[in-house]
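Input chain follows. Return structure tokens only.
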Amino acid sequence: MSATSQTHGSDHYSVIIVGGGQAGLSMSYCLQRAGIDHLVLEAKTVTHTWREQRWDAFCLVTPNWQCALPGHPYAGNDPHGFMKRDEIVEYLDGFVRMVDAPVREHTSVQRVTRREGGGFHVSTSSGDFTADQVVVASGGYHTPIVPRMAERLPASIRQIQSADYRNPQALPEGAVMVVGSGQSGAQIAEDLHLAGRKVYLAVGQAPRCARFYRGRDVVDWLADMQYYDMAVGEHPLREGVRDNTNHYVTGRDGGRDIDLRKFASEGMELFGALEDYQYGMLRFAPNLRENLDDADATYNRINAGIDKHIARHDIEAPPASVYEPVWTPAEERTALDLSRANIGAIVWCIGFRPDFGWLDAPVFNGKGYPGHQRGVTPVEGLYFLGLPWLHTWGSGRFSGIARDAEYLAARIRERSGQDALAA
């Protein structure tokens, strides 16, 4: 135990970690290796989101070899496969056991404030604590986004958010409107479509990518091209990349593309972005064609980058190809009668907003996102971990969290040493 912990008593820790998901546990692993005392505070149970907020057919969209939590790499016999939900939970359970973090579950953090003279005061549902440093590892997906128009929809229509979707059988009879075509929306729409449900899909601006190209998983090519090592400051969009929607693709049944045009040719009905609801009618923007074209352009652009890599390094591979649309909308339909379409349920898949209202620190921008450099904020002793593109593409995923946690552990150790000298 550090000198500061001995000075302040049993409710004081050198570091308090807020959040017991893979980010918080990764931080605990690194702090244990550095010999720094700490406490993990978790509002529910460790890694609960993987058990409670994933549908039955959920699987990874990145290959298993990218599961590289610190000290706990994927050790199965299918590195290029895609773990299903229960396999992911089993992998995480092994990580939980290995880390054996000092954690208090069912303890929600209500307020974090800075203390005079340095450090932080942490108020929780289980009492108050103090800490020299705080790591916020609660992720950035807190509040489901549901538009206010949802309040005006008929009570007969069941509305759920993507985190609450489980399977097609759990929804009422009738057609299903899926709003949003990011990773969750596209995969849930596919899940319903494969089950034979009538699906209407409001297509947004999410890009897509190929699952396999020129004989390999696209992720393998991008890893060779060092895309996953690119820091946010090196990305062409700089910090703007953090606002990007993830590409839709799936690892289901061994992995494949998700082609919304193919679904449309099989009976799924596609619309542009949902804009409003009035007098029994859903209203859509006339941008379906544009959104599909833009998604395909990204698909082809990624593949073209792989083509250049193959040519540059004289790699033997199957021939290049360019995606050609298998279906094109005949017109831009901007309205849908809910009753005539027999819609019994709507699944909102338009993302989440961050909610750090409990953290009293001047580090947030107008969108509620913290300002930081690789997780280190302008407030001394306050850090973030596990956010998308915190440092690289993998920062919010199993693949990059170890590097970020190790970096922050080094910064925390440096500051702990400074505090000890000052004391």
